[in-house]
């Protein structure tokens, strides 16, 4: 399947679907087992136009919306959430690079030849990404970055990093930089051997006297948090919600397959014919449907500029992450011992599904924002 | 405020809003206290065109959709869920009478001069309304009904009852009748002194040798369950969901008002300024928003004839009822001792909110249906 | 049944059981309906020796332990939690009066002729009873008290109040006073019309220039919080837990009675014969048994001076209160529409059961204490 | 550390503690990583007298009680739940072999030279172990066994299997056999690559024309279920509860260590100093304490022959398994991204903790039994 020269978002979504079937799905279990980075998946998705989805047509991209982002990510996540997370972080980075980055990088992204990612969370402030403690210092020839980043998706694999630090001299909490892979002084600092999302190279990274040119700055010194909140954050939150939804759909599909095909020989019936199974399954299926309705509503609000769009964006990741954790737990329980074995793919998705609620901003942090917003208080009022 | 001669659904919704403010809201606490039937509310709502909302324009009605029903019921329920339940049962009855009932009754309903309701649940089969044990027997001059109905909203207050029984002679589980108020042998059998929804006269009724003419039959003998499932049930489920949503909105509004206006003097801050309050409030507010998204999605599915519309209808009451119970409990907890007193109106809504999950079809019964439907099994396969 | 001259705790427990059967249980529904104070219950329980249970034998009391307190309160609470709460607050007050109060009052309490209670919570600091904002000022002839107490059980009914205020001149957060009923300037400030525990006269009280003699002080000026934490709090927490347990036992008993005696005629079986009912009931029954085990363990720890006794005491009210709320909700759901009507007594206990978790110290406040204690932090470190 | 010739249960518990520290704990992470059988752990525990704990003194055992079993298993499970599960299944088997097995095997078990296990669950009847579909047929020279066992702990590693089948000719649901390792026709049928408890070799086993002597029968033909319910089941349920408790203790310890030592640099405080962390931690710590109280109560009931002892035994595994799942989930959430990495040991215990609720009898199955027992219905009345 080859893409047209100027692919529409429809073309991309179709091509992604094909790549997921041919490439992503078959590799998922092994990527989970070994924790290897899904390089072949990323290459195939690049070929399907996925990396340029959010890029503007003027640089050769598909000019997609967050609804398109959600569609692509859900499709990938149904097969492999690790790969979906790699693409999601690329979209979050792209949403900063598009308005603030250099045209050559934008063109490379649009053409599927450049993978980017975010480097936000830090050892010192942990999941409070809005309060970096790492530094940027003006030096001869540019700006020196020093940092201990705690989790960077595609660490050592991406072509660039959208990197947060304290400002050089401005007031304000944060400045953003576009740090190219290979910058001296930037290093992957460890490996990732985790519970879930094992294939996205989410390792710590360090910057130790890394120097970037002043032109690497994305937006004004000190303006980084506004940019992050205005572009990267909505993209991340909506995309993360879509990944959770894809995982849930896959989990409930696996559960349906299991209970309709497994028989209790001594009773002469399938598990699905047991009333308690039906009732439990219904609650899980309904939870997924209700979660999808909320993501749909969020995308509708964004698409039509509804006044509550920003609130929905702040809510949607938590709604989907909590639902994914609950549904995954319910499916594990419903499928019992069978789900405990790796054959069904349920336990892998379960482990992947628990990642969303601890990824920054966590559910608690989002609730803090939503609570202050809906009670008429300033957004960054608490600890 | 007076309605035009041929009111549109918009006119009705506006007029209902005005009546709720002027009449329904001020009376709600007292209706709850005494358990009196909200006769003045019903009369005022009739004057606002609410009773004819679902009636066809050809008999003088507004020709409203289930989306209109949901809008009207949510508006009423924000002020008084008891009154909303009375109107809901009238809509459920109307949805049967419109296609199967006599034109004179339809015209009276459209004109706001006739209130109807359902008489389904029975002592013998309890919440399993699809399995009546009451009887209809052919006698000279018509059909004799004998029954012990367990819960009839507007019992002794409505102008007619859409009444279920076993068939006269057909196979099939149920036949429906339009029983006029005042039919000899029909009696209210007890009073209702309940936990919540105290003002809707939900008492038992008995039929002891009550004779109705054969023409009182709604649809064919034995076809009652199909009619109930095809018309009354969707109306009831969607409308009940809207009542739950109205209650939730009112509860969260009350909570916001309480925490933003109540001060902890020794700490010099309002309750809303406490981080734990913000977090808890956010979770409640988000739950309401997510629940609304599901009702919206259900109405969209119905409006556009989406293939999943029937499934959504089977899900929506349970989604909203469970959310209402959880949100009400969370608001009670958040507002602590203050919510325990009657002044805030929180404890009344809490009691009202718990009704939905036990009203037939209960959450469990709906999950049974949804589970069988989504696992590819026959709908009435279990106990 | 008449008590011996020097009743043992056994005698008291037996006599209380008899009074509960003869007097408390028959009156419970009506007390709930009207919100009347259970004066006849209190008198009968006084006659059974209940008021002197905690009093030392040297003043004529039964010298009971907290285990005895728990036994008496659970027994009363199974029949009427409002009455149990009145007795509980008397015990909490007695535990302060016994070591710090005048002998004449102690003798009156032991003899069953004096009912006391706590007056701690205030409008200004709400459930944070450890931070009173009310004042005590040295004046000619004694000490002047000014306060707006928010919830006082047995307000206007008790013979004395163990009353908190800020110290007269000492450092420290609190001083305690024994304020006799009838003190000029002390008044009941409102009525209580609440969701649950409707019969314990839990109204606000005000002190407006009320003067008590200096001798009314219980323990040193400024030492009130230590006394409250050391005596009244453990008594209240353990006793409150016992009340929750009694409510749970009554609720589960009612549920068992309902499901084993109610038939589904169309299926020819009782509700108890339905597998889903059995499963749900088991979870409720088990929750009650597990909750009892924790109270038993707490009493064992107290009785044997185990090092974790203080921690258990800080935990036990929250464990029992949360369990009571959950079990009550589960019983309401299990018994469906029947529980919604007042006949079964389930909805009354449900309303009563929700009180415990909002009574100070609330579950959240207790968790704050327990969290700090078990993480090695100072007990009053947060907000 | 060497054991005395006739070790007391105290000697065993001490020796087990030492072995856990020296051998079990250091190996746990690697056993989880590779899924290897903990052979060195089992040998060391055998040397500590653990295998003979339940054996009667007359055959050289320590004559331990179920309380001793619980103590040993909790100690092992704090370090490695896989190893604890191996020992637990040995105890369950021993409890059948002691009253019904041959003396030579009993002596070998007591001496720590024979490891046994149960082979109950089957592919055909899945977790309904009380309904085997496998067969035992009288043949020349003994009895022929044919079976597809679905989960056997220590499969291929144990020295014998307590094996269930349908009876040879008696009525009744089950007959038990002691099948020696190495019996021709018995084979391990697959490997176990699972979510948790990865080191206990819980693989399927098959019997294909395996012949055992008639003397291999344990108790009468057809009496197997009574024996299983009377001996193996209580041992398994209590021991499984103890394993869950050990896991919970380890999880909460890890959480306390993490939050007290991890700093938020930008706020200048540890995670433990955050109020929300304290509150969450308290709820988890309290849940563990409450769960321990229930296990203690169960052991007290067993030890004193209390009438409710059998009920407690039927409840205790579910109480502890559900608590373990909840506490593990709460710890994962509390410790966020850090818990997601393998370094802390939290995610391993989390995976291990989820096993208990799906091991037969599952929580649902136990609730079915408890529900019927406490509602006065026959124990095996449902499906």
From TrEMBL, chains A, B, C, D:
The protein's required cofactors: FAD
**A GO MF term:** oxidoreductase activity
Q: What class of enzyme is it?
A: oxidoreductase
**Regions crossing the membrane:** none
Which CDD domains does the UniProt entry name for this protein? ACAD
| Stretches assigned to the Acyl-CoA oxidase/dehydrogenase middle domain | 118-207
Q: Might you give the EC number(s) for this enzyme?
A: 1.-.-.-
Identification of the protein by name = Acyl-CoA dehydrogenase family protein
